[in-house]
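Please decode residue identities from the backbone states below.
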């Protein structure tokens, strides 16, 4: 085989997506969240506000999770192209996203438990101080949301890939959900504190903690479901698989007898197909059909030349 042909057929298994901008934004948010977490925890103990204290500890778990997201980006860069991972480093971000979802869920459960305890055994709250600290935390959280959300705007302006339009950086999505959850708990805490300060509705402080915990549990479950499927090599969406069948079998001769299409990263998809055909077509011919519509990270095609007497069961 000629050297040029070999070079054309070989390919790399490194990540095809560049998340350097996401990485930089995540680092900024990690620093902001860490500072706010320290302030809110200290203020929560000082003022006696469960809503503020829950928000602070909740941000603590998010600081750890966001830090994990940043570490995942750094490790992915470090091992990129090392050859130590069969399909590249895309799943490092997925693993970080899955772990972040666990932190998110545990934080929510803790919030619900502590809030119930405060309903049973209320404590005095220094409303004026707690309101001021909570407002500062909310401003920082909203700033973090805007920082991370700028990536979504860039994505929609520049994304034209039929796959990437439906899938995103799960590691970044986990970080984004964390700051959204932080913003939600800050808003609920502020509502509770203002209600207690001006209307005497002290009971709202722990109730808002429960409401926030339930909503965050739902977000955590959604993230666990999507990242868990990728970590377990779950099959890609049905519309992608159907399109591949249509592309390969459009000549009314070729038949797919085995097909595997799965995510190996947030946006990266691998495809392995086994095809029976009566035509003189090569694996490269079928890959070209697929590449007209998809930009898979990895494609492997196996072609079996069909003899009429041995293929009646396939074409019949």
């Amino acid at each position: 085989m000629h050297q040029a042909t070999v070079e054309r057929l070989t390919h790399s298994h490194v990540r095809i997506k560049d998340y350097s901008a996401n990485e930089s934004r995540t680092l900024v948010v990690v620093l902001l969240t860490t500072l706010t977490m320290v302030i809110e925890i200290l203020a929560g103990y000082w003022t006696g506000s469960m809503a503020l204290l829950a928000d602070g500890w909740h941000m603590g778990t998010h600081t750890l999770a966001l830090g994990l997201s940043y570490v995942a980006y750094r490790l992915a860069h470090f091992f990129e192209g090392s050859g130590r991972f069969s399909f590249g480093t895309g799943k490092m971000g997925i693993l970080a996203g899955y772990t972040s979802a666990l932190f998110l869920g545990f934080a929510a459960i803790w919030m619900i438990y502590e809030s119930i305890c405060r309903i049973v055994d209320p404590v005095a709250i220094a409303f004026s101080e707690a309101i001021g600290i909570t407002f500062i935390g909310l401003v920082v959280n909203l700033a973090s949301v805007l920082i991370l959300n700028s990536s979504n705007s860039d994505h929609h302006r520049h994304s034209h890939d039929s796959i990437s339009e439906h899938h995103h950086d799960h590691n970044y999505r986990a970080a984004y959900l964390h700051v959204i959850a932080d913003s939600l708990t800050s808003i609920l805490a502020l509502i509770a504190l203002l209600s207690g300060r001006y209307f005497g509705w002290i009971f709202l402080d722990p109730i808002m903690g429960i409401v926030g915990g339930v909503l965050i549990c739902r977000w955590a479950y959604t993230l666990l479901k999507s990242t868990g499927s990728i970590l377990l090599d779950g099959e890609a969406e049905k519309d992608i698989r159907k399109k591949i069948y249509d592309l390969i079998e459009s000549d009314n001769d070729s038949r797919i007898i085995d097909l595997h299409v799965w995510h190996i990263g947030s946006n990266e998809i691998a495809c392995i197909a086994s095809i029976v055909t009566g035509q003189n077509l090569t694996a490269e011919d079928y890959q070209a059909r697929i590449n007209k519509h998809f930009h898979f990270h990895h494609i492997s095609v196996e072609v079996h030349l069909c003899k009429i007497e041995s293929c009646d069961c396939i074409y019949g």
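Observation: DSSP finds ten helices and three strands in the chain.
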